[in-house]
Amino acid sequence: MKYYIQTYGCQMNYSDSERLTTVLEKLGYEKCDHYNKADLIILNTCSVKQNADNRIYGLGEPFAELKKKNSNLKIGITGCAIRKGTGIRGECKEQIFRRMPTVDFTFKIKDLPQLPNILRELHQVEGADEVDDLLSYFHIDPTVANIAQVFIPIMSGCNNFCSYCIVPYARGREESRDMAEILEEVEKMAKRGAKEVNLVGQNVNTYKPGDRSPDSVDTPFTQLLRRIDAVDGIDRIRFYTVHPKDMTDDVISLYGQLPSMVPHLHLPVQSGSNSVLGRMNRLYTVEKFKELVKKMRERMPNMSISTDIIVGFCGETEEEFMESYNLIKDEKIDLVYVSKYSERPGTLAQKEQKDDISPDVKKDRFERITEVMKGVSHEYNQQFLDKTVQVLVEKVDKGYASGKIPEYKMCRFKADDHNLIGQYVNVKVDKAMEWCLEGAIA
User: Fold this and answer.
1) How far, in Å, CA of 345 to CA of 353, rounded?
2) Buried b vs exposed e over 392-421: b needs ≥16 C-beta within 10 Å?
3) CA-to-CA distance for 170 and 11, rounded, in angstroms?
4) What is the structure's pLDDT at 147?
5) Which among 206, 203, 199 is positioned nearest to 182, based on CA atoms?
6) 3, 152, 297, 305: which could join 40 in a potential S-S bond, CB 3.0 to 4.6 Å?
C-alpha cells in the first residue's frame, strides 16, 4: 500500500512528518509522489490562525472523489488542527469529523506511537511489531529528506497564550526533551553526513530538560548549543522559534563565539506597535525587540534578522500599522513572513476582541509590508556582490543548483550534478536580487 503526506506550517511540522514517515515505512507503506495514487493520505496541519484550518476543511471534496475510485483509501489528519484526541471516526469526538466526512481518523502528533494500532484496524497492516515498543514521539528515528540539513525537535508545546494562537491548546504545555537524547540524535545525524542542525520547538529558548546542569550559569538552551557546537561535522546551527521576551544575553553571546552559530536569527515580533502587542498578549515591547536586534548586530554586524508580522489584527489602526511598517524599514529586517489576521475559534482574541479590519485593508497592508521588506532585502543582499559565499546545496533542478548561505539567503548557480546536494560549494556572486543571489562556482 502507498502513502502520501501533505505538510503545512512551520519547521516543527516538517520535523513531525519525518517521524511520521518512519512509522509508516516500518508498517510496510511505500511513499508515492501524489495523493491520487495513495491508499493512505495524512494531512499534517498548522492552525495558528483560522485561514490555516480553512485550507484543510476545503480539501474534503477531492478526497470524496478519490474514495469512490479507491475503496481502500483512508484519510488521516494530525498536527495543530487536532485538539481533542486520537482515534477513528465514531470513537473520537474531534470536530473535524463533522466538517470533513472523508476523514477516517485523527491523532495528536504526540500520540504518533498509537498510529500503528489505528492502521491495523483500518488497513489490517502486518509486520508492525518493531514499532510496538516506541516509548514516545521523541524516540522515533526520523526519516530525513535531506541528511545535510536536519530538523531536530528539542521540545513540544507552548506556555505562551498569545491571544490569536491556538497552539497551546492543540499541542499542550511545554515539554522539553532530555539533552542527552538530543545530543545522541545530533551525533547520529552527523555520522550520516549532517552539516546543519535546525533545532525546532514552539519556544526553544525556554528549553528546560530534566538532565540540565543546575550549577551552570548558562541557561539550559545555551548549554545545549555549546554541546552541539562541539559535535564533529556540525558546521551550522539554526533554531526556530524564539520568543523575544525569553531571549537571553547568554544565547546572544554565543554569536561570534561558537563557529557553528550562523549570522541569522528568526525573531518573531508580530507587530511594531506596543498597543497591538498588548492586545496580542505578547508580553514584551517594541523597545525590547529593538534592543535585541542591536545586541545581535553588535555581536555580528552583518546579522540577518527575519521576523513574523500579522497585519489587520483586531482594532489595528493605520497609525499602529505604520509602526510595523517603519520597524521593518528602520531596523532593516531583511525577511518578513507576513500574514493577514484571521480569527481562530477558541482563542482569547476570538472570544474578547473584534475582527474589525476589512479584507481589503488587510490585503493593502500585507502588500505594503511586502514592498518595504523587498527594498530592505535588496539592499542587504548587495553586500554579497562580487564576494565568494559558501552554499550548502539543497536542490538541483533545470540546470541550476541552489541552497542557502550562512545568512539564510538562497543562492543559485549553474550545475546539473545531483551529487552536489548536501555539499558545500563556494560561489562568486554576480547578481544580488530581492529574494536570492546568483553566481558561478568559484
Assistant:
1) 12
2) bbbebeeeebbbbbbbbbbbbbebeeeebb
3) 16
4) 86
5) 199
6) 3
> In the numeric block, which cell numbers belong to residue 163?
491571544
Answer yes or no: do 252 and 275 share one domain. yes
User: Distance between CA atoms of 276 and 161, rounded to whole angstroms?
Assistant: 15
CATH code of the domain covering residue 403: 2.40.50.140
3-class SS of residue 4: strand
For residue 63, the enclosing domain spans: 2-131
Instruction: Tell me the three cell numbers of residue 14.
Output: 516538517
CB neighbours (10 Å) of residue 208? Answer: 12
Instruction: Verify that 328 and 368 share a domain, yes or no.
Output: yes
Nearest in space to 361 (alpha carbons), one of 330, 320, 389: 320
CA proximity to 235, closest of 205, 198, 266, 267: 198
Comparing CA positions, the residue from 361, 375, 359, 281 lying closest to residue 318 is 361
pLDDT in tens, 49-65: 545 555 565 555 668 88
Q: In angstroms, rounded to a whole number, what is the distance separating the alpha carbons of residues 390 and 259?
A: 14
Listed in order, strand segments (DSSP E) in 135-218 are: 149-153, 155-156, 175-176, 196-200
Q: Is the pLDDT of residue 297 over 90?
A: yes
